[in-house]
Amino acid sequence: MKKKTPKEPKERFLNLKNTFYAVKTIHRCAPLLLTSFILTQTAYWFFTGFIQEILFLKLLLSLIENGGSYKEYVLLVLMFAASGLLAKATDCITDYLACTRMKHFYKNLNDRIFKKAVSVDMACFENPEFYDKYKRATEIITNDHSSEFAYYLASVFAGGLTGIFLVIYVVSIDPKILLILLVIFAVVIAETVKGKKGIEKDKEMTPHKRSKEYVKRTVFLKDFAKDMRTSGIFGVMYGRFETAVEKNREIIKKYGVKMAVLELIAGFFGKAMPVAATYTYATYRFVVKKNLAISDFSVIMTAMSNLKDVLNDLGRAVSFIRKEAAYFGNLKEFFEYESKVTGGDRIAEEFESIEFKDVHFTYPGAKNSSLNGISLKIDKGETIAVVGHNGAGKTTFVKLLLRFYDPDSGTILYNGTDIREYDINSIRERLATVFQDYKVFALTVSENVLCHEEESESDNLLVTDSLKAAGVYERVMAMPEKEQTVFTREFDEKGIGLSGGEQQKLCAARMFARQFDLALLDEPSSALDPIAEYRMYESLIDATKDKTVIYISHRLSSAVLSDRIYVFEGGRVTESGTHEELMSAGGNYFEMFTLQASSYKNEERSVS
Predict the structure, then answer these.
(1) pTM of the entire structure?
(2) Residue 465 and which of 238, 315, 395, 446 are 20 to 30 A apart at CA?
(3) Considering the domain boundaries, does residue 578 fall inside one?
(4) Boundaries of domain holding 48
(5) Same domain, 445 and 544
């Protein structure tokens, strides 16, 4: 006989943990939100399901049967009206509170998700599994899973309270009727299994949903518009979209029949059968046995119908809670992710030197190493060029220096101390960077440069000086709103666009606007022509006097103007020295520079 695995108890325990985590998260982000939902649902369920349709009906029919006075009738109606008014007032107040609290919840949870997203390791953004977790975590916000969870949890509380009073009432008339409700347990089982299948279905569909969303996003983005229209790439992208749709259709089909059968079982045992059985039994007592009063006959039919609805709704609510709690489980996994790149408590002091000692590194999941024993040292005040062909390891060198990753082996020393002993942010604050995949945001020129809102005259002067240092000041002054001009028309119809070279210069201005000891320029002129590139390097060197500067490039304008050059090849330093020394050596650098000579005649003449 096959042994039962402990999978189900583990799953039930996990569901319970997810539910508690969801309650804790909602309460932490918006205290009183769950309370307001519970009061709203209780005001509706209890008043409608018990007071109005059972208690008031029973008292009214009993009053009629016993020949009550008109005064008693009016008093009963007034009591009913007062309870209805109280229920409605409670519903309105708590519904308003729930709406306002929900806004607090979304805002606070968004803040937590954003902060976590910008603090995780860079490796996470190259990991599809992490992206799927991130996608499922953010669905808490985007697909209203939080309000659904709060609604169904409140429904369980309100339905449970109403159900208890209905059961007490039914038992007071005839306990045997409760036996009919046993069939509704089939509904609870069916709804639980259906909820479990729904979770499995959603999980399988997540990667394909992400693929669909990527295609939909890129079709509408300006960055991809030209390629979409001038190449055959749209056909490939649309093919990916259709594949994702087809995959999800297959998943829905796979689960559809099972979920339809479970829905049929829930409908039969939860609605048709209890009503038919109750009518049969109550009619037998009223007509054959004649031991059931007309008031009890009428009210017990309503009570059983309401109790049936309550139990059905409770079964669905429990199933939905389980499903919605699973999304909070994804959120929990996302928040519990611990960065592997961690820092120490030491605050980085003023930069004196950086040294790589036999550093090796391979990207997660990659077959080949990106750095294979890099050893070099850079001292304060030096202008360094790191050159080499694409894929030589130059950008990886920058990523390790910025603590986006840690080396697999070897050591990086900041001022002679292992860089891992320093607080990561304090290291990054000492550095200023311009990346080859530069990004300009849909904000004002000033905000793009300062990376915060302009708050004073000194901020304005800093923006001006930074734009001048980057060589883009005149272009900005020609804009309609000068430094307050917004980029792109995504949020402002008066917004403007910039050429690739102008955008790259603006990103360089961002570097000049901050205090830094060491500048890291990773292909900072990739969007410029050779002449503009050389002029930009001259401007950068002039603006970074007394600073340490590292140029990363496969184009060699920066190398000509540098104090020392490191040539990367295959993740190793194959040559180092000044421009003249490397040209005399006749190695890889000589070959690279000679091939680019037509673009750099002026540079070579200026250093000869």
Answers:
(1) 0.63
(2) 395
(3) yes
(4) 11-336
(5) no
